[in-house]
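Re: the 512-residue chain
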Amino acid sequence: MDITSILNVLLSVGVAAAIAYFVGTKDKKKRESTPQEPQVDVSKNEVVLEAKTTAKEILLEAKDAALRVKNEAEETARKLVRAAEEKEKNLAIEKAKIEEREKDIETKARSLKQIKDALEEKQLKIDELYKAQKTKLEDISSLTKEEARKLLMEQFDKDLASEKGRRIKEMEEKIAKDVEDKSRDILIDAMSHGVTDYVVEYTTSRVKLPDDEMKGRIIGKSGRNITSFEKLTGVELDLDSSPGEIIISSFDPVRREVARASLERLVADGRIQPSRIEDIVAETQKEIEHLIFKEGDNLCHILGVYNLPKDVIYTLGRFKYRFSYGQNMIKHTLEVTKIGMALAHELGVDVETVKLGCLLHDIGKVLNDEEGSHIQVGVDFLKKHKLSDQIVNCVLEHHEDRPFSSIETAIVALADHISGARPSARSEDYESYVKRMKDLEDAALSFDGVENVYAISAGREIRVFVKPEVVDDASTALLAREIARKIELEQTYPGVVKVTVIRETRVTETAK
């Protein structure tokens, strides 16, 4: 009950009491002026008793409300007093802090002034001493100021030259060490950007058969089914080497994939006849071509390369079915491009050129209908589609067949070497790998005048050290050409092999 309600109750009670008093007085006068009638006692009337009870309750409620209001007012007043005291206390603390700071500032200012005065006094003494020493030296040496200055500068130049040489040597050594460390860090960081997983596959595909009867149905009457299948797909089927499955062989990975998918559909369908084979192969070829373009477009999208000709995108999609020693070409291209981009960012060169160069560097490997090395085939293909000379040079020089024309082409070659030569990148078995490397070294060692041969970069390069007393400078070029020709005629290897012939002459004399 709030103050207003209490006041209203008190007002109502007061008015009721006044009215009762007025009516009682009037009734008393009336009784005195009129003959008395028999009086009736209403004090015990229920209405009167109820009214009295209600009046008492109202008075009690009013007292309680007034007491509560008083207590609340006192509590509020106490809180205000405490808050005011707290603020006053905080103000006193802040004032004391400010006064302390002012004293510190005044002390520091006095100390600084003293230091300044002392420095000025010392400077004056130094100036006076310098003048005195200068005059004394001139008197003793009988040299003029210019002559003394020239003499001092000559001595200073001698000392400075010696110090300069020492400093330059130290800086060169430090720079060489820093460059080596920085190069190592850049390469490690770049390689970490290109880490990918590889799935090992081979140049043949296998299709499992539900039973041996299916082989007869695939062969057909007089071999017409298998002949039609091989003619349409351009592959060879081997039904005898492995029981329960058919081995599909082809140099073209796309043809092999079309044949594999078509044969699986024919086996599942069960209707194996020339007309059905033709329909299935045609349908599968369309699906594979669509899948190839989709793979090429997805590869470009992952690397953020757009606006390439559709024929180039389709050719990149053929990487999905191309493997080199178990290294899938799409995975290899992704790894090379990521490494190349990381190196380009670190070295501050044209990232877009490096990106496209890495993406397209092996595109010649899937152009099986063209003659020549995959480098020349890829270069001709890119020139046909009018790609820039910088990108064409990246493809042309990525096996170092000619000197690098820019740092971008060098980065593309380095990224390709890192991806191809790193451990576990290729699934060639250890024995075959060692034999191929040894054959390369033996081919060079078979020539006269060769002292040592080292096959490096996973067999992509051999370095031949010749005896300088046997092979002269004019013969080194001919020797390199003959070694390369021997390797071409006698050995099988992926890509190209670079032959570097090194002739070193050392002359030693002894001073006695």
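The mean pLDDT is 80.
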